[in-house]
Amino acid sequence: MAKHVVLAGAAGFLGSHLAHRLLLGGYQVTGLDNFHTGRVRNLSHSMDHEAFHFIVHDIREAYIGKCDAVMNFACPASPPDYQANGIGTLKVNFQGTLNLLGLAKSSQASFFQASTSEIYGDPEVHPQVETYRGMVNPIGPRACYDEGKRVAEALTFEYQRQHGLAVKVVRIFNTYGPHMRPDDGRVVSNFITQALRGENITIYGTGRQTRSFCYVDDLIEGIFRLFESGASVTGPMNIGNPVEFTIRELAELVIDVTGSKSTVINLPLPEDDPRQRCPDISFARQTLGWEPKTALREGIEKTVLYFDNILKQPENVQAA
Ligand code: NAD
Ligand code: UDP
């Protein structure tokens, strides 16, 4: 009998790709999502699969069921999304994670938590290694997400210590690709949408801040390998692309790939915006034999094709 995974956040950007990868890997998958930022269309390649079941569920409420593994990918991930209701974001990360840990405990299942590079805040150590404890502003506008994710990690490892739960934590660095929402406010989706619509490309601050962008297929492969690795590999483990770009370089690349006539403009830098971010992936390389394969240009080309199609859908066509 195929192992049964309960995957929270299955209709989201990453959750939908992960659901598909788990089904390909022979797992039975029950997806949970409340469609806060997820979309039904993201599940089009999984919905007809006989081993996939979907339940509309908010993880801030308990979910009762039986399974072999619980994976928690439910949480808005874009700053405008998670800041729109900061208390809700804190509840998803505390109460939601607690509920899913309870589900894993009652099923004697393993638990896998999607954590984030935001754990490191505005880092003073560069690139970021898993042992670095971070520099997070606990009362700033990003705290609902950063501190929420930190408490989710703390809860996960308390369940391991106190209840002997088999746990794993991945720290995901900026990821992009198909299934992102055009209006989700993250930099890759903003720049591509703006370039395709011929709107101004909005660089926040000087554009000298850096991020390291991982194409979604690479990320999902790393996550799948971590999920299937031996129980002694708990993480936290960084998964991301260690090639660092400035935000200005990203804007130039998007203009080049789309052939857009858009103009770059500078807007104020949001409070607490990290100045640099780049993963040290030595742990993933050594433990999983994993590293990303997709160069930024290639990944942006694939993502532009997806957005070009999505922006032609009636709900995304802007009134003239
Ligand atoms: P996303 O917003 O596309 O997906 C999140 C999903 O969770 C959505 O389908 C949403 O509807 C669902 N959700 C939100 N609140 C919920 C609730 N209370 N109950 C049930 N479902 C709920 O974001 P994503 O990029 O796919 O991120 C997925 C996970 O990966 C998140 O935990 C995020 O923190 C983490 N992560 C993502 C990135 C990235 O670059 N994409 C980076 C670091 C960490
Ligand atoms: N950013 C930008 N223009 C945008 C959206 C974001 O310059 O339209 C910047 C943002 O200030 C940050 C970087 O791009 O420095 C990455 O932002 P994103 O929201 O994608 O992710 P995060 O800040 O969580 O890494």
Automatic annotation (TrEMBL):
GO cellular component term of the entry, any: cytoplasm
Keywords of the record: Decarboxylase, Glycoprotein, Golgi apparatus, Lyase, Membrane, NAD, Signal-anchor, Transmembrane, Transmembrane helix
Membrane topology: Single-pass type II membrane protein
GO BP field: D-xylose metabolic process; UDP-D-xylose biosynthetic process
Compartments it resides in: Golgi apparatus membrane; Golgi apparatus, Golgi stack membrane
UniProt superkingdom: Bacteria
Keyword flag Glycoprotein: yes
A single GO molecular function term of this UniProt record: UDP-glucuronate decarboxylase activity
CDD domains for this protein: UGD_SDR_e
Requisite cofactors: NAD(+)
InterPro entries associated with the record: Epimerase_deHydtase, NAD(P)-bd_dom_sf, UXS-like
Every NAD-dependent epimerase/dehydratase domain range: 5-240
A Pfam cross-reference name: Epimerase
Protein name per Swiss-Prot or TrEMBL: NAD-dependent epimerase/dehydratase family protein
